[in-house]
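4.2 Preliminary Data

To establish feasibility before requesting continued support, the project team ran the inverse folding procedure on a target of 379 residues. The structure was first converted into the token representation described in Section 3, and no sequence information of any kind was made available to the design step. The complete token record follows.
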């Protein structure tokens, strides 16, 4: 394999000190360790990396022995987390190959093979994510043209796009996320392979997709991601009950704005907004059938959430909070003076009120009086 080693001196201040420490310890023990993946890519694009991952030729057990405060994680693929505080750790992964062993019937029976750096390069997803940085020589190591792609602002997939999306359909939503986050162009073959392979996303475990959804929408460009997922026909495999409206747009823009201002955000709000319309439609249908509206509300909320968790699993605490927000809407809309105090002291008031405010500014302009009422009530 041809390799390009390009000397690039990153400002030391931009590199994570703990990651450098880990690399130095592994190198001193006679192994090779590099920064890899998203951090190298982000540094080259002048962005602040989210985390600093390390790849090495040392086996997990060997890495584990080098660090007192480290632990082995993962069952199939063992990784090492070197702990620096209760919340901060550096992840070290041993080079591995993308080789799979299949039984006669084609089912994958083993895919956890360690390998060389050349193997490790090709099992990654995109060229821009397959760059390594040698901190000693201050060189970027590039086997596949990732450096050129970064310069040309392009994303190319490693290997055959159809096959690589088949092997792991989550790569399709990763492509959309990187395109949007990094402001890059997807190669034509990625685009057409996504259109073709989008339905495969339906086979991914609902638990994995929950994690991916947070990454998709809790950032500074959530609405663009939403629009692209829709355009490429991926959105319906995450949220089949969700259809774009002004409320969703406002909520996503609002979330991004909060993140820019370093304010806190919660997935509760996002899912409550995405499913609101479906909930309402179901509620109306049920209320027409039975006269008890509170029963209809509870039943509608449960049905919509059950449908959702078939695609993207939501933790139980999150579902409870979503229902609370929805069920509080009519109570806020009634503006009963006698209930003001109790509602204001309800722990869910803040979220339900924010929800109502966004509705009044988008799909329910008739609620502007109600919004004013609650703004005044809090003064
Ligand atoms: P970010 O952290 O900004 O989301 P990242 O590229 O670091 O981006 P991670 O999920 O942290 O993404 O993964 C680290 C690296 O592992 C990636 O850069 C890529 O090389 C590899 N990788 C992650 N997920 C996959 C996948 N589904 N298929 C192949 N390689 C992957
Ligand atoms: Mg990362």
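Position-by-position output of the design step:
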């Amino acid at each position: 394999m041809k390799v390009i080693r390009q000397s690039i001196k990153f400002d030391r201040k931009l590199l994570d000190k703990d990651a450098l420490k880990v690399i130095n310890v592994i190198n001193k023990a006679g192994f090779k360790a590099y920064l890899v993946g998203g951090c190298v890519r982000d540094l080259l694009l002048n962005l602040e990396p989210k985390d600093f991952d390390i790849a090495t030729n040392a086996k997990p057990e060997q890495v584990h022995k080098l660090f007192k405060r480290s632990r082995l994680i993962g069952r199939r693929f063992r990784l090492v987390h070197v702990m620096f505080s209760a919340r901060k750790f550096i992840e070290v992964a041993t080079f591995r190959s993308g080789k799979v062993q299949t039984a006669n019937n084609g089912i994958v029976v083993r895919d956890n093979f360690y390998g060389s750096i050349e193997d490790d390069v090709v099992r990654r997803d995109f060229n821009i994510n397959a760059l390594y940085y040698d901190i000693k020589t201050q060189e970027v190591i590039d086997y596949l043209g990732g450096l050129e792609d970064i310069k040309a602002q392009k994303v190319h997939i490693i290997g055959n796009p159809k096959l690589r999306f088949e092997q792991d359909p989550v790569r399709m939503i990763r492509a959309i996320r990187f395109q949007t986050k990094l402001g890059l162009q997807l190669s034509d073959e990625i685009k057409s392979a996504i259109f073709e392979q989008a339905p495969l996303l339906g086979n991914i475990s609902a638990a994995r997709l929950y994690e991916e959804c947070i990454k998709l929408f809790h950032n500074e460009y959530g609405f663009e991601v939403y629009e692209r997922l829709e355009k490429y026909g991926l959105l319906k495999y995450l949220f089949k009950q969700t259809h774009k409206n002004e409320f969703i747009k406002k909520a996503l823009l609002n979330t991004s704005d909060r993140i820019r201002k370093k304010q806190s955000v919660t997935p509760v709000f996002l899912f409550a907004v995405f499913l609101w319309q479906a909930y309402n439609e179901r509620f109306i249908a049920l209320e027409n059938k039975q006269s008890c509206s509170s029963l209809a509300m509870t039943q509608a909320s449960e049905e919509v959430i059950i449908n959702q968790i078939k695609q993207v699993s939501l933790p139980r605490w999150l579902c409870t909070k979503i229902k609370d927000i929805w069920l509080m809407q009519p109570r806020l809309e009634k503006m009963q003076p006698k209930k003001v105090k109790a509602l204001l002291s309800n722990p869910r008031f803040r979220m339900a009120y924010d929800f109502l405010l966004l509705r009044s500014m988008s799909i329910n302009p008739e609620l502007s009086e109600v919004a004013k009422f609650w703004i005044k009530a809090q003064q």
